[in-house]
Design brief:
With 268 residues, this protein is of the alpha+beta class. The protein folds into 2 domains: 71 residues, Orthogonal Bundle (Arc Repressor Mutant, subunit A), CATH 1.10.10; 167 residues, GAF domain (Beta-Lactamase, 2-Layer Sandwich). It has 8 helices and 9 strands. Helix 5 runs antiparallel to helix 8 and helix 6 crosses helix 7. The protein is globular and about 60 Å long. It starts with a helix and ends in a 14-residue tail after the last helix.
């Protein structure tokens, strides 16, 4: 009995290391990692990491290359992610509205969720006029540089945006906001006008408008519309904003209300 607490602590550490390893491999996307890289990144003994990797390879959560020396995320992670998408009640409600909005405007529409400092793209409906190369489901982008992210950060000005914004704002384009005071001023303007603008801050030549979805408190989801800057004028901007307001209202009216007040990591 005396050893049970110690075994429990070891079990928690092992579980945490497993999650850290999977998140590390997922963050590398199409760049497989060697054992030494993983061991160094996790600050863990190589023997322990190797034993963990062997188990995860056997279970399908990690994939080894033909030489057995390079590792990447496995197919089981895809199955878990698909289950997350299939069972999320808010995504299920939002998807037909996103499709309708994209068809109405013939622009690219996104649905995303705040996860710590990132926006995770859970649904995208592409424009038929042009295709953006990186608008895939599951993509993560910094919240501070995206319209969806800024719309959600603006909701947290009173409670504090610290947990969702890094100390160093790394630019994605020459127009990315990299000064915290400038970002705070932009978030205050976002809250005043009711929507966020990503003005080529995330992708050169593309402007995005983002609207928070307030069926949860605090809000964790948002929608955005991405448009090539060259196709925008005042009239077109007004059409897009009006259509997005209608879509936001339609989604909020159908979504179950969550007033739990818990602003917790979503685990995606």
């Amino acid at each position: 009995m005396d050893g049970e607490p110690e075994r429990g602590v070891r079990g928690v550490k092992s579980a945490a290391r497993t999650v850290d390893l999977l998140e590390l491999l997922a963050s590398r996307q199409n760049r497989p990692a060697r054992l030494r890289e993983l061991s160094d990144a996790l600050d863990a003994p190589r023997s322990s990491v190797y034993a963990l990797i062997r188990t995860l390879v056997e279970r399908g959560w990690v994939r080894a290359d033909a030489t057995g020396t390079q590792y990447s995320i496995g197919i089981r992670a895809l199955l878990a992610g698909t289950t997350y998408l299939d069972t999320d009640p808010y995504l299920r409600i939002a998807q037909p509205h996103i499709a309708d909005l994209s068809a109405e405007l013939n622009e690219t529409i996104h649905f995303g969720r705040l996860d710590r400092g990132d926006i995770v793209y859970l649904a995208t409906k592409e424009s038929t006029r042009y295709v953006r190369p990186f608008s895939r489901v599951g993509r993560r982008l910094p919240a501070f540089s995206t319209a969806m992210g800024k719309s959600l950060l603006a909701e947290r000005l009173e409670s504090g945006i610290g947990p969702h914004v890094p100390q160093e704002l790394t630019p994605l384009t020459p127009k990315t906001i990299v000064d915290h005071d400038v970002l705070l001023a932009d978030l205050r303007r976002t809250r005043e006008r009711g929507y966020a603008i990503d003005d080529e801050e995330n992708s050169a030549g593309v402007r995005c408008f983002g609207f928070v979805l307030r069926y949860a408190s605090p809000a964790i989801d948002a929608i955005s519309c991405s448009i090539p800057v060259h196709s925008l004028d005042e009239r077109r901007t007004g059409e897009i904003l009006d259509a997005m307001r209608r879509t936001r209202l339609a989604i909020e009216q159908m979504a179950p209300v969550d007033l739990s007040g818990a602003d917790l990591p979503t685990g995606i």
